[in-house]
Design a protein that fits this description.
The complex is a heterodimer. By secondary structure, chain A is of the alpha+beta class. Chain A has helices spanning 2-18, 20-53, 70-82, 94-104, 132-140, 151-194, 196-205, 209-249, 262-288; strands at residues 59-64, 86-92, 121-126, 145-150. Chain B has a single domain (2-235), classed as Rossmann fold. The A-B interface holds A 3-4, 7, 196-198, 200-209, 211-212, 291 and B 48, 70-71, 73-80, 82, 84, 87, 90-91, 101-102, 104-110, 113, 149-150, 153.
């Protein structure tokens, strides 16, 4: 069994080292395709998490002016609750909000000695999300209100980003994946032609079709695995580099749950590469290796 | 051992073989002779299953090759030694590796490979050339190495397609002597050639082919006179 395995591995190695340029082309195309797919998957996962972590599209956050007293805040809350479009209003007192913020940033910044900069906040939930913009606009006219943040805008931004990433990532990634499939197929096909003597000798000496085809399939799988591993490494490296930039551009991303765990990419992309590489090579051997 | 019953092979509208019947018994040594295009290679391809007959039956080592399943063919080929004309040795491997390659490809373990390779190298007289590359071998040595690879698995049937092509007369005779030695050890041997001198000298069974048909079958004869007449007609 070990001798058999050694023979197959040696045959695969010989195939891989015979056409170095073609191998490099197949591996790099598989790598680029998987970078796009891996990057898109990572971004989509993150954006999906962002969408889920945002308040419901039924809600708006109403930040009151610092000068607004608690009585005025309660008065406004009562007024809003009386509106037919509004289902529920919750008041978050500034002390509570500040306490929550201090706890959240406990490990990073010491806020203990600072004065509370936060205003009181009303969380308004409407019965119909379509009414949210109009309701937000009306609330904003109140003299006690500093700012109304309609979470639908953020949600819209996230969803638009997700759509863009999906189109670019899956579209371009899909096209490149197709190119990778063809290149791996072609590389294995060329290897088969360059090893025609070996194939013929093995066939005439009585090697089974499966054992003749196996080294070529392993060659395709190796191309996919190497391409996938390179892609995963590059995606994780670049993701780490640009993560801070995106947080600076869209501060709400900071509160998002963590993205795709690195091991998912480190295992998933090489596995996907192996699958597509193996399938292409199997297809090539089906067409070009006969006994 | 080998039996062809009314076998025809048709490519398009051209008959490569036309209702050929042939029986080769166990332990026989048979020369298959004929000019280029006579059908020798087609007949050989039928014998090792690379080609299926358009009609008729091909029986080799008790197996019906005309209807054998593809997955069963390798196991039948392991009982044949095949010396093809077009694909001799692998150029990037030494003589030793060339012979070992075939054994490894059919699943022999390393100790068995070492034992078998040493045996056949001694049999064909290539011990000293074991570590040489094919490009360093003479034509006769390369052919002996190809024969060694074919018989490494001790097959009961050896098929050699033009093993003396492009060899000088002395070397050709050395190859035929080697094949006759293998025959004396029990293997049935079928050799195609158009080398008249060695056929006359070997005094074995000679089957002559022309235009896809067997035109003579002589048990212990020389080069058939029928072929000489045909060649003369063509020359005229």
């Amino acid at each position: 069994m070990i001798d058999r395995l050694r023979f197959v591995v040696m045959e695969t190695w010989e195939s891989l080292t015979r056409n170095a340029t073609m191998q490099a082309a197949a591996i790099s195309t598989a790598c680029i395709a998987l970078i796009l797919l891996g990057g898109a998957s990572m971004a989509l996962y993150k954006l999906d998490a962002a969408a889920q972590s945002l308040p419901s599209q039924f809600e708006a956050n109403v930040f009151l002016k610092m000068s607004t007293t608690r009585e005025q805040a309660m008065q406004l809350k009562t007024q809003l609750e009386a509106m037919p479009e509004i289902e529920r209003v919750a008041l978050t007192p500034r002390e509570v909000a500040w306490e929550q913020e201090k706890q959240k940033l406990a490990g990073e910044v010491n806020l203990a000695d600072l004065p509370n900069p936060l205003p009181d906040k009303l969380t308004v939930r409407v019965r119909d999300p379509a009414m949210l913009p109009a309701v937000s606009q009306r609330i904003a006219q109140s003299p006690f209100v500093e700012e109304v943040i309609d979470s639908r805008k953020e949600l819209q931004t996230v969803l638009e980003l997700a759509r863009l990433v999906r189109w670019i990532g899956l579209g371009a990634g899909g096209l490149l994946l197709l190119a990778a499939l063809i290149l791996i197929y072609n590389t294995v096909r060329l290897t088969i032609f360059s090893r025609q003597r070996e194939v013929r000798v093995m066939a005439l000496l009585g090697a089974t079709l499966r054992s003749i085809r196996l080294p070529f399939v392993l060659e395709g799988m190796t191309q996919g695995v190497v391409g996938g591993a390179l892609a995963a490494t590059l995606v994780l490296f670049v993701a780490a580099l640009i993560s801070d930039y995106f947080v600076r551009q869209w501060p709400f991303l900071k509160d998002m749950p963590p993205g795709l765990p690195p091991y998912v990419l480190m295992v998933g992309l090489p596995a996907m590469g192996a699958l597509i590489g193996g399938l292409c090579a199997w297809w090539a051997t089906r067409r070009h290796v006969h006994i | 051992m080998v039996e062809l019953k009314q076998v025809s092979v048709v490519y398009g509208e051209q008959h490569a073989l036309r209702r050929v019947s042939l029986t080769v018994e166990k332990g026989e040594f048979v020369f298959l002779v004929g000019a280029t295009g006579a059908g020798k290679s087609t007949l050989f391809k039928l014998l090792y299953g690379e080609l299926r007959p358009t009609e008729g039956e091909v029986w080799v080592l008790g197996q019906p090759l005309h209807q054998i399943k593809s997955r069963e063919l390798p196991y039948l080929r392991r009982r044949m030694g095949i010396v093809p004309q077009d694909y001799p040795l692998l150029p990037r491997k030494t003589v030793w590796e060339n012979i070992a390659y075939g054994l490894r490809a059919i699943g022999y373990n390393e100790s068995a490979v070492r034992q078998r390779v040493a045996q056949v190298l001694a049999l064909v007289g290539l011990n000293e050339q074991a570590r040489q590359m094919p490009s360093q071998l003479s034509g006769g040595e390369a052919q002996r190495a190809a024969i060694a690879r074919a018989i490494a698995n001790h097959p009961p049937l050896l098929i050699a397609d033009e093993p003396t092509a492009n060899l000088d007369p002395d070397t050709s005779w050395e190859i035929i002597e080697l094949l006759m030695r293998i025959n004396l050890r029990g293997a049935t041997v079928i050799v195609s050639t158009h080398n008249r001198a060695i056929v006359d000298r070997a005094c074995q069974r000679v089957v002559a082919m022309d235009r896809g048909q067997i035109i003579s079958d002589v048990p212990h004869g020389g080069y058939p006179i029928e072929l000489d007449r045909l060649h003369a007609t063509v020359m005229l």
